[in-house]
Design brief:
By secondary structure, the protein is an alpha+beta fold. It is built from four helices and seven strands. The N terminus is likely disordered.
Protein backbone atom coordinates (compact mmCIF):
# COMPACT_ATOMS: atom_id res chain seq x y z
CA UNK A 1 0.00 0.00 0.00
CA UNK A 2 1.38 3.40 -0.93
CA UNK A 3 1.60 6.21 1.56
CA UNK A 4 0.47 9.55 0.21
CA UNK A 5 2.66 12.55 0.85
CA UNK A 6 2.56 16.13 -0.28
CA UNK A 7 6.32 15.96 -0.77
CA UNK A 8 7.35 12.64 -2.27
CA UNK A 9 5.04 9.84 -3.38
CA UNK A 10 7.06 6.87 -2.18
CA UNK A 11 5.62 4.01 -0.16
CA UNK A 12 7.13 0.84 1.23
CA UNK A 13 6.61 -1.17 -1.99
CA UNK A 14 7.95 -0.58 -5.52
CA UNK A 15 10.13 2.22 -4.21
CA UNK A 16 13.36 1.75 -6.15
CA UNK A 17 11.87 2.76 -9.49
CA UNK A 18 9.83 5.65 -8.05
CA UNK A 19 12.74 6.92 -5.99
CA UNK A 20 15.22 6.78 -8.88
CA UNK A 21 12.82 8.56 -11.24
CA UNK A 22 12.21 11.31 -8.69
CA UNK A 23 15.94 11.74 -8.03
CA UNK A 24 16.53 12.15 -11.77
CA UNK A 25 13.62 14.59 -12.10
CA UNK A 26 15.11 16.61 -9.23
CA UNK A 27 18.49 16.74 -10.98
CA UNK A 28 20.30 14.46 -8.55
CA UNK A 29 23.14 12.02 -9.19
CA UNK A 30 22.74 8.40 -8.20
CA UNK A 31 24.46 5.04 -8.31
CA UNK A 32 22.45 1.80 -8.13
CA UNK A 33 24.03 -1.65 -7.97
CA UNK A 34 23.85 -5.22 -6.78
CA UNK A 35 26.80 -7.35 -5.72
CA UNK A 36 27.21 -10.79 -7.36
CA UNK A 37 25.04 -13.55 -5.87
CA UNK A 38 23.14 -11.09 -3.68
CA UNK A 39 19.48 -10.16 -3.70
CA UNK A 40 20.14 -6.83 -1.96
CA UNK A 41 20.54 -3.69 -4.08
CA UNK A 42 22.13 -0.43 -2.97
CA UNK A 43 21.24 3.08 -4.07
CA UNK A 44 23.35 6.08 -3.14
CA UNK A 45 22.35 9.63 -3.87
CA UNK A 46 24.90 12.40 -4.28
CA UNK A 47 23.28 15.81 -3.94
CA UNK A 48 26.55 17.65 -3.32
CA UNK A 49 27.96 17.12 -6.81
CA UNK A 50 30.92 15.05 -7.95
CA UNK A 51 34.43 16.09 -7.03
CA UNK A 52 37.38 15.47 -9.32
CA UNK A 53 40.42 14.06 -7.53
CA UNK A 54 43.93 13.17 -8.60
CA UNK A 55 43.92 10.06 -6.43
CA UNK A 56 41.34 8.04 -4.52
CA UNK A 57 42.43 5.71 -1.74
CA UNK A 58 40.30 3.33 0.29
CA UNK A 59 42.03 4.23 3.54
CA UNK A 60 40.31 7.20 5.11
CA UNK A 61 37.90 7.70 2.24
CA UNK A 62 34.32 8.81 2.73
CA UNK A 63 31.36 6.62 1.73
CA UNK A 64 30.56 7.11 -1.92
CA UNK A 65 31.19 5.91 -5.45
CA UNK A 66 34.23 6.49 -7.65
CA UNK A 67 34.64 6.48 -11.42
CA UNK A 68 38.28 6.24 -12.41
CA UNK A 69 39.61 6.03 -15.97
CA UNK A 70 42.23 3.46 -16.93
CA UNK A 71 44.62 6.33 -17.70
CA UNK A 72 46.20 7.17 -14.29
CA UNK A 73 46.96 10.77 -15.31
CA UNK A 74 43.26 11.59 -15.72
CA UNK A 75 41.09 12.86 -12.87
CA UNK A 76 38.91 10.50 -10.88
CA UNK A 77 35.29 11.40 -10.14
CA UNK A 78 34.04 10.82 -6.60
CA UNK A 79 30.34 10.98 -5.72
CA UNK A 80 29.79 11.36 -1.97
CA UNK A 81 27.03 9.14 -0.56
CA UNK A 82 24.77 11.83 0.90
CA UNK A 83 21.88 9.35 1.15
CA UNK A 84 22.12 5.55 1.15
CA UNK A 85 19.23 3.12 0.62
CA UNK A 86 19.28 -0.67 0.62
CA UNK A 87 16.52 -2.67 -1.05
CA UNK A 88 15.48 -6.30 -0.84
CA UNK A 89 12.57 -7.52 -2.99
CA UNK A 90 11.96 -3.87 -3.96
CA UNK A 91 11.37 -2.83 -0.36
CA UNK A 92 13.58 -0.44 1.59
CA UNK A 93 15.39 -2.41 4.28
CA UNK A 94 17.67 0.46 5.30
CA UNK A 95 17.66 4.18 4.57
CA UNK A 96 16.61 7.64 5.76
CA UNK A 97 13.07 9.02 5.89
CA UNK A 98 12.99 10.70 2.49
CA UNK A 99 10.14 13.04 3.40
CA UNK A 100 12.37 14.58 6.08
CA UNK A 101 15.46 14.82 3.90
CA UNK A 102 16.68 18.24 2.76
CA UNK A 103 17.52 17.04 -0.77
CA UNK A 104 13.90 16.17 -1.52
CA UNK A 105 12.11 18.91 0.40
CA UNK A 106 14.17 21.70 -1.24
CA UNK A 107 13.76 20.42 -4.77
CA UNK A 108 10.28 18.93 -4.97
CA UNK A 109 8.59 22.21 -6.00
CA UNK A 110 11.03 22.87 -8.85
CA UNK A 111 10.53 19.32 -10.13
CA UNK A 112 6.77 19.85 -10.28
CA UNK A 113 7.31 22.94 -12.44
CA UNK A 114 9.48 21.27 -15.09
CA UNK A 115 9.79 17.78 -16.46
CA UNK A 116 13.11 17.28 -18.19
CA UNK A 117 14.40 14.45 -20.34
CA UNK A 118 15.83 11.94 -17.89
CA UNK A 119 18.21 10.10 -20.19
CA UNK A 120 20.66 11.24 -22.83
CA UNK A 121 19.86 10.30 -26.41
CA UNK A 122 22.00 10.55 -29.51
CA UNK A 123 22.09 9.49 -33.12
CA UNK A 124 23.63 6.11 -33.99
CA UNK A 125 27.26 6.51 -35.02
CA UNK A 126 28.32 4.17 -37.83
CA UNK A 127 31.96 5.26 -37.63
CA UNK A 128 32.35 3.41 -34.31
CA UNK A 129 32.37 0.06 -36.16
CA UNK A 130 35.25 1.25 -38.35
CA UNK A 131 37.18 2.53 -35.33
CA UNK A 132 36.68 -0.78 -33.49
CA UNK A 133 37.97 -2.78 -36.47
CA UNK A 134 41.06 -0.55 -36.59
CA UNK A 135 41.54 -1.04 -32.83
CA UNK A 136 41.42 -4.84 -33.19
CA UNK A 137 43.95 -4.70 -36.03
CA UNK A 138 46.29 -2.49 -33.97
CA UNK A 139 45.97 -4.91 -31.02
CA UNK A 140 46.91 -7.86 -33.24
CA UNK A 141 49.99 -6.03 -34.54
CA UNK A 142 51.14 -5.07 -31.01
CA UNK A 143 50.79 -8.65 -29.71
CA UNK A 144 52.51 -10.16 -32.76
CA UNK A 145 55.44 -7.76 -32.35
CA UNK A 146 55.80 -8.78 -28.69
CA UNK A 147 55.14 -5.29 -27.31
CA UNK A 148 52.05 -6.48 -25.46
CA UNK A 149 51.09 -9.92 -24.18
CA UNK A 150 47.33 -9.57 -24.04
CA UNK A 151 44.66 -7.03 -24.97
CA UNK A 152 40.94 -7.50 -24.55
CA UNK A 153 39.03 -4.93 -26.60
CA UNK A 154 35.36 -4.80 -25.65
CA UNK A 155 32.55 -5.27 -28.12
CA UNK A 156 29.20 -3.60 -27.84
CA UNK A 157 25.87 -3.45 -29.55
CA UNK A 158 24.45 -0.05 -30.39
CA UNK A 159 20.65 -0.05 -30.15
CA UNK A 160 17.99 2.61 -30.25
CA UNK A 161 16.07 2.77 -27.00
CA UNK A 162 12.32 3.29 -27.07
CA UNK A 163 10.86 6.54 -25.78
CA UNK A 164 9.50 4.72 -22.70
CA UNK A 165 12.77 2.93 -21.83
CA UNK A 166 12.77 1.90 -18.15
CA UNK A 167 16.33 1.73 -16.81
CA UNK A 168 15.33 0.20 -13.44
CA UNK A 169 13.20 -2.52 -15.02
CA UNK A 170 16.05 -3.33 -17.42
CA UNK A 171 18.54 -3.45 -14.52
CA UNK A 172 16.24 -5.80 -12.59
CA UNK A 173 15.92 -8.10 -15.62
CA UNK A 174 19.71 -8.19 -16.04
CA UNK A 175 20.11 -9.04 -12.33
CA UNK A 176 17.66 -11.94 -12.71
CA UNK A 177 19.29 -13.21 -15.89
CA UNK A 178 22.87 -12.88 -14.59
CA UNK A 179 22.90 -13.51 -10.80
CA UNK A 180 26.69 -14.01 -10.73
CA UNK A 181 27.43 -10.68 -12.40
Amino acid sequence: MREASSDISIGKKEVAKDLINQILELGGSLMYWRLPNSDEKTLIICNSGASVRDEITLEGSMPGFAFAPFNPTKGKYFFHADLVFRFKNDEIVDGPDINNTAFFSKRVESAKEKKSQLFYSSQTKNEIITVFSALVEACIQKTESGQIEKIVPSKFTDIDLPENFDVVKTFDKLCEKHPNA
